[in-house]
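The instructor's notes for this session suggest beginning with a concrete chain rather than abstract definitions. Hand out the sequence below and ask the class to guess, before any prediction is shown, which regions might be ordered.
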Amino acid sequence: MITTIKVGSGVLDNNGKINDAVFETVAEEIAQRIRKNEKFIIVSSGALLMGLMKLGLARAPREIKKRQAICAIGQPTLMKKWDEAFSKHNIKVSQILITHEDIGVPKRAKNIEDTISEIFKIGAIPIINENDTVSTEEIRFGDNDFLSAYISALVGAKRLIIITDIDGVIDKHGNIIKEIHTDEIEQIWERISQKKTKKKVSSGGIISKLTSSKIASEFGIECYIINGRKLDSIKSAIKGENPGTKIFGNKIYSRKELWILRVMRGKGKIFVDKGAYDALRKGKSLLPAGIVDVKGNFSAGDLVEVYYENKLVGKGISNYFSSEVNLIKNRKTHEIENILGYKRFDEIIHRDNFVEQDR
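After discussion, reveal the predicted structure:
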């Protein structure tokens, strides 16, 4: 069984000092479970925090270049802390830095999956973080909560433990919600009453954690949101207990479908007529005859969003470049070769590579 543990910056900061107890507790508990043939991945925030501490800065600057530089300074310290903690148990650690584009491109995602598999065979722990030094707005996850959900889905993890600095999801009366089912999350978003605090480096919040948990749960992964400042909670969660809030896994989509809906990012838009809209709703492929307009520049193999009357119908992987679709839109399938001089496929988007937005 594979468990992903996401460690937030909030629990690694102990009043301006590094909270060594969190590193040590996570490593100790994992070491015990590894002996029972369990596997673990750690998605660790903290590069920015470590960089700020090393430079003696109180707050992170807003400029992305400066933040990237500080992350580059802090990442070695973060890895050193994990290495020191696991070395006490004779366990090696490895570092994997990725961007959203690495996950969103199927070939790159497969390379990450294969690398993690080999790391497991060696008996080491993958320590994963967003590659903050190269990530910009269009290729970044935005928060390691989402990265942990995508990684969990990629490797087929059974559990995702999100270690944060709150006891779990709190209702409007201030009580911990112990268990949440996937279909309840949107209702909880509306009624959550959470005290807002200004944090030095954290980029996510409880909504981010619920959203990423929803994504993971749709892959059938059980999620836990726990308070890492309470070391016993870390121990309990790694043992399989629920010291915070548990979000039940409820597999709704296949991995491919969820990748199309949640992970891959759209490179363009295709607008269709009523006939194509009805055909897509019936599970048929998108043919050029039903296309009325194309927006954006995309390549064959890119994800595109499909719209009918400005309503998002779904997302799919295009078999053609945007320039090609513009030439063959509103035309019959048998005309494709005469117009382009070749024909790769009859379909612009095959039904196997299309997922409705609300099905």
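Then share the key points. The chain has two domains: 2-257, 266-356. The chain has 14 helices and 15 strands.
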